[in-house]
Amino acid sequence: MRLEIQEDFDKIQCTNQIKEETKQFIDDQMHHKKRWGLKLALSFAVTLLVCGFSYWFYFIPVVTITLDGETSIELQINRLDRVIDVTTYDKLGKEWCKQENPWHQYYEDILQGLNDNEEWMITVYSKDEAVCQKIYEQTKNCTQENKQIHCRIGRHTRQSNDTTQTQNHHKKGYHK
Predict the structure, then answer these.
(1) For 82-107, how does the pLDDT look when each residue is reduced to its tens digit (9 = 90+)?
(2) Alpha-carbon Rg for the chain in angstroms
(3) Percent of the chain residues past pLDDT 70, beyond the cut
(4) Domain range for residue 97?
(5) Residue 163 CB contacts under 8 Å (≥ 6 apart), including other chains
(6) Is the overall model pTM greater than 0.70, yes or no?
(7) Distance between CA 114 and CA 46 in Å, rounded?
């Protein structure tokens, strides 16, 4: 096919400059189409990569904070210090969730809004000790004015057997 085009092109009578400009234009058009497909594929790959990273960054919890008082509540915290999941173990916890609507709020705002008249035990859990220590310090700082709130670092990660035992205690009502 390419040979036929070359033969037909040679039959055209015009100056060599016009022929060269025409050849250059045709080559540019052919390469431009190839680059467009490559650009589209590259854009799609980058978009997928950004979406995957964003999901990992925002929706994967790094810390669990348990609030034990009249009710028992677990807050899953992401890398941006926002609550991404809440687990409650009784009716009071569900009512608290409806009232406070903690999803996507900063955990510090939630802790500062805890009832001053109620005694709370706050426990911070994380697989990453450095993150756990940082969140624990911030939790202590934001609740230090309230003497009814006690903070501690959990001795285990969420995947340990102790967590299963803790969840069983919550269900049985031993959350104080």
Answers:
(1) 999 999 989 999 999 999 999 999 99
(2) 31
(3) 82
(4) 60-172
(5) 125, 156, 157
(6) no
(7) 42
